Amino acid sequence: MTDREKGTGWIFGLIRGICLALTAALWISGFLLTCYAEDMTGQKVLTEWDYPLIHAACVCVFLPAAWLIWKWVGKKPRRRKRILLGITLGWYLAAGALLIVFGRTVPAADSLSVFYAAQDMAAGGRDVILSRESYLSYYPQQVGLMAYFECIIRIWNLFPVSVPAYHLIKCLNAVWACVILCAQYKTVEVLFRDSRAQTLYLLLALFHFPFLMYTSFVYGEIPSMALFSVGLWIVTCRLGENPEQGSAVSKECAAPKGCAAFKECAASKGCTAPKGCRTAAESLSAALCFGAAAALRKNTLILMIAVAAVLVVEAFSRRRPFLAALAGICLLCSFGSLPAAEAYYEHRTGGELASGVTALSYVAMGMQESSRAEGWYNGFNFDTYRESGMNADLANQISRDAIRERLAYFREYPSYAAGFYGRKLLSQWADGTYASRQATLATFGGRSGFFQQLYEGRYSVAYIRVCNLFQNLLYMGAFLFCLASLRKKPKSAGPAEGLWQYIGLIGVLGGFLFHIFWEANARYIFPYSLLLLPYAARGWSLMLERRKS
Fold it and tell me: What predicted TM-score, i.e. pTM, was given to this entire model?
């Protein structure tokens, strides 16, 4: 047994078992049940039995279709994968443009408040920081997203146009979506060295319709996931490299003088793992990407903790302190980006942001009933902070009392508690649309007939069902990957399997645990569906491999 196996063996086995249980639970619940909102005004989440026979028929159609597409790509894999990648990127850009022109989505609720705050700052105002009743006084974690919006608004204001700047944000979202696709496409290559999995990743991505819909959502999900995906790709490149091969490459290149000499040597000998020239720059790039991602969407810290944990374990097992240092740098950037943005705006305006709605009040709200579904937003966190006079200590005390009250009720009625958390989890993870219709509902000037029907009319039923079929393929593919990892790895597979290959699934596991306790919303689960895509592609690839054998 190697040092690496000794260092991560039991951890790896535990993670594999937990991920298998999680993906099995997600697949079975999504296979049998579905959650969706029918009324776009009240947005109450309904839970119903799904159509297992239709899901099974979809799998029976998907497998031959995937096999035929791979047979076509496999004849000229490099060229035809690029063609399929181009088709996928073109589809996302075209769909993003159609949603902008005909979907006519505008910012609403929190996204509108952040956009107005950015607009005010771009115009030279200071009230969003100085006023104790401003949106940022309640939600200072949105300051990073406001900074992003402000930069875009300032650039937009340089041009003589009267169209609102949020249309440019939606255009950028379509570009960011392409960044996610490219980064994850390359990540699949690094993780699995499986050309067929790359092909199936693109095939699955073509039908991730909630992903398409979210390109018109004026908020932080898409740009945050794009930056995180780039950072994750860089980190997996570091984890996937072979240190012994790297040293051999260095000897073959005869210890070249400086980076320029190495690049010249690498070009002639095919070396791809330079030491000292690219490693530091790439690692810093990854840390900055993670920091920016966390600033745009604070929940990205869940994924960053997963990345750092894997880096630390791999550093120990491989005896590579650099990986532990990389974990520290990434965490420093991720946890420091929002405080840095807050400090910048406070210095710029001469004011001071309030501490904001407390985390404990979100936990308390996640234990309460709501008009939409169990644990969803009901105003408790906002009202508690406001009624406490924006006193964080008092708000936390009120939240602790509310938590104790609910825990006592759960202990008295355990069957109710089990049903409560069961429905809370289903309302988030069994919604195939990931609340994409609710999030992008607000319009200006009326939508085109097709998109109006898609959101609230007869086409919405078809949209929900298609999204459910895709979600079943996503969850089932991820489950097949985890199931296959318990079996002996075939000779045709990629690099030696290890904890680092589960880095995305560990992030999903962290998100699942976090949203048991936090405020619920199917929109919060959307980024995890993107993290599952590479694993679903690999799972279906292994299934095709078994069918072939």
Answer: 0.91
